[in-house]
Give the backbone structure.
Amino acid sequence: MSIIKYKAKKSKSGYLYKVRIYRVIDGKRQDFFKSGFKSLREARQYEAMIYHKKASGDLSGFLKASERRFDEVFEEWFKTYQNTVERTTSVRTDDLFRIHILPVLGKMKISKITPWQCQDFITEKGQTFRNIKQVKSYTGQVFDFALKMKLITDNPMKQTILPKRERKKSDNFFSVEELHEFLAIIKAEEPYKNYALFRLLAYSGLRKGELYSLRWSDIDFDNQLLSISKNLGRIKGKAVEKSTKNRFSIRQIPLDTETISILKEWKQKSRREKGQLSVTPLMIAIICLRLLIETER
C-alpha cells in the first residue's frame, strides 16, 4: 500500500490524498484506490486500519466476491487431490461428488454459498446417505481450497452440525456354527475352487482386495505360510492391482494344516488354470444370500 497526493479543485488546499490498496479477485491481485482524504493524517489512519484488518485475518476488505461456481473450483481442487491418493480412491471420490454433491452445490457461485445452505444440504443428505461425515469432509476440502486460493473469506461448511442417525444393531458376522454351515453349503453346491477360497478367507483374516490379488506363488506350502504384498481394486469395472493399504499390511500369515490341504487339492484339480486365485464380489453376495435363504427354511 502507498499514499498518493493529488490535485483536487473541490479541496480548499487544492489537494487530496488517496491510498492504493489491492484486492484479490478470483485468486488474482488487482490494485485499486481509496481516495478523497482531506489530509495526510486521515489517509494514514485509513492505511493503518487496513493493515490491522489484514494482520488480524479479516480479509473482507481485500477480497471481492468470486464469480466461480462450486463445480469449477472442485475441478481445480481435484487436479491436486488425485495426485495425493491411490487411483481407486480418487475414482470413488469423483463418484461421490458427481452423484451426491455437485447436483446440489455445483452450479452455485462458491462465494455466495452460506452456512445455512450448507447446513440444509448436510441435514437433507444425512437422511439418505449413510456416511454423511464423509460428504461434509470432502465438501469442506473444496471450500478450504477456495479459501487458500483467496476466492472466499470463510469456509461455510466448517460449522455445520452432522445429523444423528439411529443405528440398528445387527450381527454382521458368522458364529462358529454358521461358518461351518456356510462352508458346508459351498462345498456341496459350488465348484471346489469357491470352497477353497472361502475357507482361505475365513481362516486367514484377509481383506477382500488381498484375496482377489493372490497367486499360487504367494503360498508357501512347505512352511504353511501365506505372503501378502498387494491388493486388487476396481476402477470403473476393471481390476487394478496396487500395493497394500499400508506398510503394516505387508505380512506373512500362518495357515492351518486343513486349509493347506484344501488348497493343495484345489491346485491339483486346476493345473490347467493359470493366474489369480480370484473370486468376484458378486459371487460372494450370491452365495451369502443362498446361505440366508437356507437358514430361514
In short: Residues 45 and 51 are 10 Å apart (CA to CA). The longest helix spans residues 87-105. The chain has ten helices and nine strands. The chain has a mean pLDDT of 80.
